[in-house]
Request: fold
Amino acid sequence: MGAIELDGLTKDYGEVLANDDISFTVESGEIFGYLGPNGAGKTTTIRTLLGLIKPTAGTARVLGTDIRDRKALIDAKHRIGHLSDDQAFDDQATGAEILDLHAAVKGDDRRAELLDLFDPPLDRQVRAYSSGNVQKLGLVTTFMHDPDLVILDEPTGGLDPLVKHRFAEFLRAERDRGVTVFFSSHILSEVRRLCDRVGIIRNGQLVTVDPIDTLLRRTGKVVRINSADPIPIEFVDFDGVHDLETSVSDDQHADPDREFTECTFTFTGDINELLARLPDHEMVDVSIEEAPLEDVFLRFYGGGEDV
Reply:
């Protein structure tokens, strides 16, 4: 049984079909990233999983509990941590008062540990907090009762780079302890570093669910070649070469329609076939890198080639 299981989950607002027959499973003990632009349906999915809104059709199970069973879901939520994209804390309360309230509702076994890690200013009213301090307080409230599952909506908004790094290390350690993490984010480099798998949602429909490495392999690798001598264009005329851009150095007298000394392309073929061609020319530099996750995302959303 997965920690989260969606089965045909649908939410129809009438004019907007926010979630359209979505089905996938988040396995226990994994970090699962949920990606999509604003309005794609991510927050609707999260709110439905937490029982804040009712599905129009289909259902989901969270920690084995059907979200339509409101009483059982209330019990299950004692084992769930949730970080909203809008904390909505009482801005007249101090940080300490906010934590005391949460502790009274769900417990605070890990309060001291998390305060050492994230260090929000507890003696000040929330209205005097920066956005980063609000987020740090939210992280403490999310994890302080030692949940089995955490659902995070844009968890690093407002955090400075040092705290982001600290949070990433903490999240990996939680995963290694067996905690399941489900989070949405627009920061794709963050998703790349943290997630075991990702689901991509577009216009309310699930586009794909894949391990990060599989998703990147499907999009190919970025290859850059810099040669000491002109290379015939036929060198890169084979299956797997896409989006080819070539140029000829100023000190070369080659026909740019037939030869190049520098090129960049996306490669989806057998990398050994490409490497076998390199010894025929004197190379100045060759780099082969994973395609940025941003490129993967744009292929789903930006009108590029379908993945």
